[in-house]
C-alpha cells in the first residue's frame, strides 16, 4: 500500500537516520519532506539521495525575503531536483510572482522539470491567542484564505495550510489548487507543538491534496506500522 499524497517529514540532522527510516518505510512511502533541520545539516545531498531512491521530495525551506533574493534563491532550489518547493505567502504578491517566474524560467532554460511551488499561509503551530499577540485583527481562517487567493493570483500551484482551513481554501481556490496540510494527527496521538490539527481522514475530507506527517510516524515505536495505519485511514475516505 502506498499513496504519494502522504508526505513524511524527515526532521533529523543526519543522513544515517534518514536512510534507516526510508529503508524501514520501504515502498509504503514515496514522498518525503526535507525541511530546514536536515537541509542545514547536509544540504542538497538529502534531495539527491531521496530522488535517487525514486522518491518525490518536498523541499520545505519557506523562502521569505525581498523579491529579488527569493527569486534568485528559487532558481537555485529549482535546479536541485525537488518535486515541490515553497515560499511564505506573507512575503507578498511581488515576492511570490518572482518565485513563480524564476521556477518557470529555470525549468525552460535547464530542461529540468519545474518543481511545484506552494506558499505557506499561516503556520499550523499558531493559535488565535498567539495570532492576536502579533496584532493581527482578522481571524486566522480569513487570513489563510486571503493568502491562498494571493498565491493563486501570483501563479503558484497551491499552499501549505492547516487542515482546519482546507475547506475554505478549496472553496475559494478551486479543485486543482494544491492544499498541502501539516498539522495532521491520527486520533489519540500527541499534538506536540501543533495547534490547528485534524486527523488524516478529516484533512482529506476538508479538501487537502497532500498530508504532511512527521512525528506521528518518525517518532512511533514502529514507523512502518504507523504509516500503514495512516494510509489505511486515507484509503477509506
Ligand atoms: O504551517 C506549517 C508549515 C510546515 N510545517 C512542517 O511540517 C512538519 C510537521 O511535522 P509534525 O512532526 O507532523 O508536526 C514539520 O516539518 C514542520 O516544519 C508545519 O508543521 N506547519
UniProtKB/TrEMBL annotation:
CDD domains: OMP_decarboxylase_like (cd04725). The active site is at residue 62. It catalyses: orotidine 5'-phosphate + H(+) = UMP + CO2. Its EC number is 4.1.1.23. Catalyzes the decarboxylation of orotidine 5'-monophosphate (OMP) to uridine 5'-monophosphate (UMP). Substrate binds at residues 11, 33, 60-69, 124, 185, 194, 214-215. PROSITE patterns: OMPDECASE. Residues 5-230 form the Orotidine 5'-phosphate decarboxylase domain. The keyword Membrane does not apply. This is Orotidine 5'-phosphate decarboxylase. HAMAP family: OMPdecase_type1_B. Homodimer.
